[in-house]
Amino acid sequence: MNKFKNPIVWLVISFVLILIGSVTASQFNSSGGDVDVSRIYFETPRGELSGLLYKPDGADNQPRPTLIATHGYLNSGEMQDAQAIEMSKRGYVVLALDQYDHGHSTGTTEKPVPFFSFWPHAIYDAVQYMYEQDYVLKDAEGNGLIAVSGHSMGGFSSTHAVILDEADFGDSGIRKIYTSLTMGSDYQWLKVMGLNEEDINKAYGPRMSGKVAGQYDEFFFDAAAAGAGKSVVKKNYVGTEEGQGFLGNPENPVAGKVYESNGGMRVIYQPNETHPWNHFSKQTTADAISFYDMAFADYSDQIKVGEGGQSWMFKEFASFVALIGFFILFIPVILLLSKLPFFNSIYTAKAGILPEPKTEGSKLTNYLLIVFVSLYPALFFSSLYGADVSGMRLLRQVSMIFIAVTAIIYVVSLIKNYSKNAKTGSLILLVLSIIQYVLLRSQDKFLETTPFFGAPTVNPIVYWALNVSVVMLMVAVCYHYVTKKSEGATIANYGVKANVKTIAASLATAIIAAAIGFGILFAVDALFKVDFRLWTVAVKTFEVQHFIALLKYAPLFFVYYFIVGMSVNMNTASEKYDGIKGYVLSILHFVGGLMLYLIYQYGLLFITGTAGYPGESLSSIIVIGLVPILMIAAIFNRYLFRRTGNIYVGAFINTLVMTMVTIANTTLYTIF
């Protein structure tokens, strides 16, 4: 990390990576310029929808079969890159749609039940718009040659769109939807809306319809497992009553085989994939291409056929190069800003490196604390994120015990007139124990989606982060007063000591650096219509509502990045962790336990067919996205602490960048 001594060189490297990655990604995204990619917005009865429109050359003069593809609960339209690229280069018009209150789309209707506000009508509202466009092909009777496809909640939206279209057909005699292909969704949430399997299957009518049902999908395709609250198991959808009903109840149905039902054709693909894996899969993409080849076989004079020659993954890899450049960018920008007046106040006097623990007991304590702070964030992630009853009950009971114990210790220290350290330390621990208990009792309020905190998947992450922060601070206080203080440690050794000017300069530096980074992102989007991403890790452009949400969530996330960063600095303050070991330990502090969580969860799923935590579907997917983000945060924290002598720049830049990355990539309700 000392190689950042020449920030201009690294600034150039980051720009080169961003430019090369973005230009290359753009070339694959537009199929070498043969496809025009643009962002469109259009008004609907329920708000404003947006998406990336992929329009092949010649589509304005010769209308084409069209695909509308959309995403699931956690994502945005860009997650449909594979279908968008592969089908547009084969001659299809493609709209990669942001559903309401995701990405660049906004829902303006009231939301008595927010979850049912964004997906039921998103696809069909987009169908109504696309059907009216001149570049969308219709047959001689006026039926639309439009395919609808979606992943997860996008799959529900696609299926519901078919149901709505079939109902409209009864009045108009026109079907605007020609075919449908869903990924990672069964009928679970459609049934909650009051629909039954028979009516859903009947609505497909003469269309060709397909499903991609991953055998290791965390949510769907096994109603019995889902009903028992243990859905993360291996599935065989074609063997279920629902899957067979979709196929028309053939004898001994086989995945990948096409069956006739109700005048149309049906097929179920079952790749060995998890729920998010569908996005980043050559197999699923090949199945999709094959499906559309069959569905639009009568229009092969206007489109190309064949599964070969997939190129979407090259766009993803190029975007990953740009993503690396994006994160590298912040270090040289911060170092260059710090050469300016006022901004150079981010530097504080560096505290000396503390000696190694001398006794076997102190060494063992140090190792145990490292293990604990690494594992704790993962041990109770499912309880704090998913409100597991037994886990939360245990945490509250432990919290009450801590309150009683610290209260007794504090009272005894006053009566016996113990040292100032004992009195101060026990009082701080008592206060933190009470705060922790209040937090644990307030879980429902933190997890609730409200007009103020409108991101339903971010709320539980904030709640988890705050609880982890309080526990980490309790451990740090105890460790400091019991061990580190006697070794000569002060808060300066942990990067906490700083004056008001240093803190203000650190905040200003982080704001400007974040503005520069995201400004480059918007420039890349404007020029090349790509962003920075790899699979579930994405840095994408955002709207005003996301910036407003950032201002609301950032103070809470700052608590996490500040306290966990301080905990890392405390445990890496000795000579042993002066070099690369310090970075490794920093990463372990942030994500060590979470990585073990994923290994345990998915290792057992693939080996035995049942996950380590079979009831944890959404939370385990959230962890997949958290790990790389927090790894980067750990590196920022460690490097900037060692460079500036304090924790503030690292905490501020992590808060601004990582919070915006999180908010821009998921559901955000803005109108209730």
UniProtKB/TrEMBL annotation:
Transmembrane regions listed in the UniProt entry: 317-337, 367-387, 393-412, 424-441, 461-482, 503-524, 544-563, 583-600, 620-640, 647-671
**Where does the Serine aminopeptidase S33 domain lie?**
62-166
UniProt protein name: Alpha/beta fold hydrolase
Keywords (alphabetical) are: Hydrolase, Membrane, Transmembrane, Transmembrane helix
Work out whether the entry's keyword set contains Transmembrane helix. yes
Tell me the organism: Sporosarcina oncorhynchi
Supply one GO molecular-function term. Answer: hydrolase activity
What InterPro entries has UniProt attached to this entry? Answer: AB_hydrolase_fold (IPR029058), Hydrolase_4 (IPR022742)
